[in-house]
Amino acid sequence: MIYPDNAIEKLGFADIKALIKSKCLSEPGMEMVDKIQPQTRFDQVDKFLRQAYEFKELLVNDAPLPVDHLYPIRPLAEKARIVGTFLSEDEFFTILLSLKTVFAIIRYFNERSGQYPNLEALFEHLPIEKNIVTAIERVVDAKGKVKPTASPALAEIISSIAKAEQEARKRIDLVFRTAQQSGWTADGNLTIRDGRLCIPILAENKRKIKGWIHDESATGQTAYIEPEEVFHLNNRVRDLEFDKRREIVRILIELTDELRPHVPLLISYQSLLSKVDFVRAKALFAIDVDGRMPELSKDTSISLVNAKHPLLLLTFRNTQQAVVPLNVHIDEQQRVIVVSGPNAGGKSVCMKTIGLLQLMVQSGLLIPADATSKVGLFKQLFADIGDDQSIESDLSTYSAHLSKMKYFTEHADAKTLILIDEFGTGTDPLFGGPIAEAVLEVLNRKKVRGVVTTHYSNLKVFASNTAGIENASMLFDNVAMRPLYILQTGKPGSSYAFEIAQKIGLNETILQAAKQKIGVQQKRVDTLLVDLERDKKDVYEAKVAIAQKEKQLERLKAENEQLQTYLEENKRTIINKAREDAREIIRNANKLVENTISDIRESQAEKAKTKALRQRLDQELNKHAEETKTETKVKQNPVETVAIKVGDWVKIVGTENEAQVISMAKNNVVLAMGELRTVQKRANVVRIDKKHLQTRTRQAHHAKIADDVASFRPEVDVRGMRTEAALYEIEKYLDKAIMMGFPNLKIVHGKGDGILRKFIRDYLRKYGEVTRMEDEHPDRGGEGITYAYLD
Fold it and tell me: Most Cβ neighbours (<10 Å): which of 9, 500, 510, 774?
């Protein structure tokens, strides 16, 4: 139960329903959205959430669901239920299209049996009655008209009409040609008047042709005459048209009688279409607000992680602003949170976010919060938000607040969530504060859960000294004098009244006079709160910095492991290469020896020739020996006499890898290889000439760029990919296009439901280099292709 009734509007839930309603394709789906109400049964809420979650997954990652025709067929089924009535051909065509959509949906999920169990439950045990479709298709064609072959009688009547019309046309053409030859006709051809084919005759000649005058021109110079010999044929055509209409009505009555036993099934089909439309609208809204399914709990507890107000999120998205996420925890030990802090610091938004997300979860809607969030179920939600003074009820603002407090204290229990904004305001603080404290004490004894916002110091003190109630504050940058919109529990917050007044330029004399008028103790408390908040801000920033350092450390650790793996693989490659080179040397040496022996035999051991061959063999062997000796020397004495210092470029011995020295410790050097870091012994690196390195690197880099530019096309096709894979592929192509100076990037994503197109465009807006986005020309793909223009 929600109290008061307007709490739903004040929390923004009515606006959420309106946004979901706009996503519906049918009137029945919109009617279901209007009926959305928070539920209290765990199994029901769990089912609704899972249906919305599965449909969101379907829209984002699966083929489009066939929902082309979602027409309301229940009224037509109710009409067919009445004996003696019949459906028109258009109404039968509507039922036919809707049934084809129903059967396509059922087949879609049958092909994915077990993948979407909660959506499959929507049509569980619902049969596919193809006889209905067969019967309608036997009578109605693809354009929604009764087929000429719907019955033998209808086919004969249509044939007779065609013959009669043909005969009438021949007769009137003959009369028309005769009149033309006689010069009796006016300018123009045969024309239709009152549904009859007529000849345009000059007024002075109208008595020369027997027939009926159906009309005259505006000037009276032309008469439109139906010849007498054609009149009887046209009457015959009209009689046949009446026969055709009566036969069509007979066929439709017969088809309606055939459809009547299936009326309950048609209503069940309508229910399926309505539910599919309804759940689809919830899933589309969830995509818009990045909604996720939280963990549902049977306890009356709330744990929101990185939660955002959905309406604020949509508003800020249009203005390129970011919403600060909310983290809050309410449970048995921390039942009521008393939020304090400066005006416009986000207290009310914090409270409304908690209330709205709670209503959304209990209504089966996904919420913009991490999936690790945990939300329980409440049987009652009481809210006191805004000014509810009433002239009709003779209630002042404070009286209206007190009326609500009376109701809260009488009807609240442990399964009630209370939301009270600016608790105790509206009257003298000397009396409003104690009354608010007494009410809070009663509510705490009833073990309610909730959020209270206040400026009253006595409520902050009460929260500090009372079990079950916890202070919280909205962080405020007291240097820049601006709110940070971050909720911190554990300590109250200052209202920063004097600081804000000083910032806006209130006279210093007035400020000093005001400070003299408040008590010394109150001044100390407020000063302490300001200092405490400053310390909290410093601690928070320190935690963020530590988290960043830890993340950087993890990244460096991963890079080091990656580099070690790379070096191990490179080491094996070098050893294998050396072994292959050694085998090649041995093969060449053996071949040289064999060739020398062969030449000696051929020269029949002639001394001069033999001597020359031996000298050549010795030279080749000495050459290989010198090369091996040089390589061994380099490997054994790799260290140069030139000292290595930070900033030098070195080459790792035994590899072709070059790196820069970023630090040194004892006999170790820390090297940077692009984004990777590695530690090597001083003896394992050789200093290389920086100028030579830069020249070679630049040449290699220019060659690589030239190759990339020659082969790169600024076009990427992501059709059929999942969202994450598509965005990853687009990012690679976008980076290359920007680096190589291309003016635009063509992205082929297909049309479908437009989900992938929306994700891609939202992603591209994060790039400052993307100046605008346009669809392809309709003749060449339209909305299925996006052009991203680059600065």
Answer: 500
